[in-house]
Amino acid sequence: MLLEKSTKELFSKEYKKTIQEALNVLGKKNFALILQGVSFPSNPDENTGFGTYNSEGAKELFNYIQDVFSAIQLGPSGKTKLSDSSPYTGTVFSKNPLFINLKALTEEKWNRILSQKTLDKIVEMNPNKNINRAAYVYANESFELASREFYTNFKKNASTELKKEFEAFKKENAFWLDKDALYEALAIENNSDYWPQWKNETDKKLFGDIDKKRAEKRIKEIEKKYYDTIERYKLEQFIVQKQSEETLEYTKRLGLKLIADRQVAFSDRDNWAYQSLFLKDWCLGCPPDYFSNDGQAWGFSVVDPDKLFNKDGSLGQAGILLKRLYLKMFKENPGGVRIDHTVGLIDPWVYKKGHLPKAEEGAGRLYSSPNHPELKKYSIAKEENINKTPTEGKFVTPDDEKWIDNLSEEQISLYGRMIEKIVIAAAVDAGLDKNSIIAEDLGTLTYPVVKVMEKYALQGMKLVQFVVPQEYNHPYRCKNITQNSWVMVGTHDNEPIRMWASKLVNTEKANPYIKNLIEDLCAEFGNKDEIWHRMYTDEKFFAFMKLVECFASKAQNVQIFFTDFFGINEVYNVPGTSGDPNWTLRLNANFKELYREKLRSEEALNLPLVMIYAMKARGWEFYKNHQELLDKLEQLVNEK
Length: 640
Fold this sequence. Notes:
With 640 residues, the protein is an alpha/beta fold. Helix content is 44%, strand content 9%. It has 26 helices and 12 strands.
């Protein structure tokens, strides 16, 4: 069967009903669209140069995909730096004020604290209003002007009810809001939003190793001098929080869940505010592997194990802070939380500042280095748990790093303390359970990580784009993907699947991938040679079959990045690089027309056809038992 084109009205009631029936038959509990905040569409009269899930354009998208998708996987929502648009280095508590829907502030509900004239000017001057890219610098500059205006007008014209809500918000969130807002003032005072560059040593250490009375005096001084700056920051956080709550209620009514993303990093603002809770001179990264001879030096702070838990096992100061963070996230996102780099919560790789993250330069696993002169005091693994000594102290392949292969139940529980006592406990306190956690466990998994994932039955992730096709039992291959996982072709850090396929077609490198797909998806097809030839020569069909692999697998949960769904053959982020065009790719307001156009050119995801192939991959008996559903799917594909 070829990829027929359909001109039927897309996403009709009957279409959605049939797709949901097919997803149920295939055992899919969740079908999520990955769409980070900046990438949301804006209607022409609200496009300020940066996307937000709080916009009217976002509502259009929610309405469009409801009853097809069950959830949207968002990116981290923290405030980003002016010099770095990556959401993965944003604040852990404060939200990005660029997610404020400025248009809503021109309406009576918000007492028109922003003038229509100001909004129209911002929209008109947006340099990227006609292209599918965010204008990050422009959006920040124009937002600053808008913020000054709506802050002034809020003080003058906001209703008593709104002002009462604002005061309640400040009080409820003071434990993080006061520090984050103070940082905003100190960035102005020191002429830099990067605190290590501040000239005032007292300002650097207000919440670190400093005399408390001197710190309190300086804080009061700054609060008085920059009162309006601090209040404006807090107002921005109040507005974005209130709008986000309204968005959550809107998506709930549509039956859509929003899933948050907890990045592994702490922002500069967080590092300053909680510096006493981090290990000095140590950073989080990744060891050398197949992809990097020197490892990955992320430079992220490492939480001090002694501050995470007290000797009696109760939460320490850092543990309490992190639980409050996760509790906030689960309450705000009852659809769940994706934890970026779950390995970092269980068996983190740490290295000395100023050094490469290599064992020979002093790096090691924080909780798995019983022979390390500095890290052994934190090690849960003991010498008797080590089955081999790494060759010359180097870790070159994933297998080289698996030097631990046995742990007691008590040790596994210790490795899993952050998962159990912070993350799962926060989910339970929010009225959820461990199934609301998506544990990003990509890359090398050490034995402690595997055992903790098993102990708590955490839902991991499987990326079929990164299967090693020569390995028969590779976990990312369709036939090996487990039920309790989230499967996808790629994430925000990967090429769109068609771009990936385009580099393999008509080359010998494609053969092992195609062999696996034929064996796993086409075992009972009668035209295997034809299918093989088409995958080998046609990048669109090859990419399509990789998407089929996700739905044909046993995984109960499927995610798809918006570029793969809409057929946008552009990269969202290239790891290891910075600046434009990273983190700027967006959906335009005409996303419905885009999807129709890309569907006709066989670039967008043809859901009915994917379902047909996925069902046929289950075998002839499965096919016969669902003939009526297959007929309805065929009709959706072929109807003109």
